[in-house]
């Protein structure tokens, strides 16, 4: 396929053979946006036809993405040291933000004051002013900062440290390290329960999640989910949360009140990041090891389809949510 190229600042953006252009293109249908981390591309998947409608180059090692304050999609290119703003309606790159050091994972604070960026490769956590992207503080909190979660009042941000098997708490008022707590092997996803009583942390190097009373802090329970316990997605009822198990090829349904696994959903190919459709009927999962996205029927718990994308698909976002934000 012949690539169509266009300059975007100093970076070349390649649209790979699907007929999408950067200027004046048609409005996309409801679209799943998938980051192919090893290819440096984004796959745009039509959610109605379950087929890839476009693929574009965005930068080196895009791993995670989120809705920007502007309503566009913010993509973090870890090895490229930059962020990309993607138009959610047309699937077009709007701008590139350079000199963002190794942005592996990122999230806005609940009050939208902070954008915290984890630099897994460089062992640092950067605190940016969300509105201006001014770097306020760079913290060397430990080895391989990975995923993050906040308290509801945005007073603390919690960061998993994959390289030293700890969970760190950062005080956002003082921009200082509050504490570090030992956990299991290769902690990744971290999620706060709705009542803010516990943090759940997935152990990618093991087969369980840890339940942490973060106010003390102390580990109060371990819940076996499956090998390669990795990332979380809460269900709309507020009583259950999903966790992907990359090696066991399952997604566990965890009852938050009982702190127990109540169901296992088979998902082939190394399930990683997850998104649920607005109606709750389908679960979209990046299957990291096989270069596909798996679509699961949540009523039958069966695989609907695996959609081929690029190499090592990681982050995923459902773009129709732009209208509901």
Automatic annotation (TrEMBL):
What protein does this entry describe? Beta-propeller fold lactonase family protein
Membrane-spanning residues where?
Answer: none
Signal as UniProt keyword: yes
Q: Which Gene3D superfamilies match?
A: YVTN repeat-like/Quinoprotein amine dehydrogenase
Kindly state which keywords UniProt assigns to this record, in alphabetical order. Signal
N-terminal signal peptide: 1-29
**Residue intervals of the YNCE-like beta-propeller domain:** 29-318
**Top-rank taxon:** Bacteria
